Amino acid sequence: MNAISPEAAVGRVVLLTTSHRVAPGLLSWPAWQVLHEADRVLCADGAHPQLPYLREAGIPVEETAPTAEEIVDACSGGRTVVVVATGEGEPALTDGLARLAGSGRVRMPELELLPASYDLPGARLLDLVQVMDRIRVECPWSSRQTHAGLAKYGIEEAYELVEAIEEGDRGELREELGDVLLQVVFHARIAEEHAEEPFSVDDVAGGIVAKLIHRHPHVFGDETAETPEDVKEHWLRTKAVEKRRESVTDGVPLGQPALALAAKLASRVRTGGVSAALPVGDGIGYELLRLAVRAEEEGVDPEAALRAAARTYRDTIRSAEGLG
Q1: CATH code, residues 121-201
Q2: What's the maximum distance between 2 C-alpha atoms anywhere in the chain?
Q3: What is the distance, to the nearest Å, from the Cα of residue 34 to the centroid of all Cα atoms in its chain?
Q4: Partner of 221 for a Cys bridge, out of 154, 217, 233, 280, CB 3.0 to 4.6 A?
Q5: pLDDT in tens, 140-164
Q6: Helix residue ranges, H only, the chain
Q7: Which CATH number fits domain 12-115: 3.40.1380.10, 3.40.1010.10, 1.10.10.10, 1.10.1040.10?
Q8: 97, 68 contact by CB (below 8 A)
């Protein structure tokens, strides 16, 4: 490496990073400026997705992996060298530059990290979709799964999510939300393979976006809602029109836990303005029905209330066993 005189301009090294989750070529204006002004643009990855777009913009890119010493030499005389970072970054180069800087024997160029594109909120969801695509193709277990076969896992993960919420465990909450999200992406990936009615995770997301916008005219439209009750009333009214339901009980899944089912029916009766007396009957089933309806009227989730009581009962049992 040639010696650099103290009087010489030190130049500049710009490490240009990009996100693979953003379409290639969509770079920030500062990035395009430094690329056009650079004396040299280097990239160690000849298959880097940005290269065709840089060359189309008239920027010559050298496909090379220079050492830290070579980079410092290239910056002598006040020149600017841009290194287009690969997907793994440039650890060898940055470590080498740090080593040279720490030696005190070399007058270092200015070092700058310039993010040329940024991840938008939700960008990691793209990674999840890509990983799921690969697993569906290459994993012997995942490649054989069906909607029906996965149904039980959806139920299990939903219950584990509820438990994390009730326990107040933030770490578990994040993990269980991920497990629930996995079920959505997994089912959507399987749905892509349907011969007659395929749909993708984009179709799923697009559908829920359209639904949310339509059911929130007080946010996206001209209507107003002053209270949560106003919002809920409009939601139910819009939903009834969308689903073309004849009965307030339409759409209530009968396979859900019994207390939740009873409370849901009671909620539909109340919000729908239906005058329907509780059925008269003997036995614990009818007693539980009356308790569930009473809980709904008082704004209490009977499932959550019973789970809380059951946890207390579990602790009492463990205490009686001497387990603390």
Answers
A1: 1.10.287.1080
A2: 99
A3: 32
A4: 217
A5: 999 999 999 999 999 999 999 999 9
A6: 29-37, 51-56, 68-74, 91-103, 124-138, 147-167, 170-191, 201-214, 217-220, 228-243, 258-272, 284-297, 302-320
A7: 3.40.1010.10
A8: yes
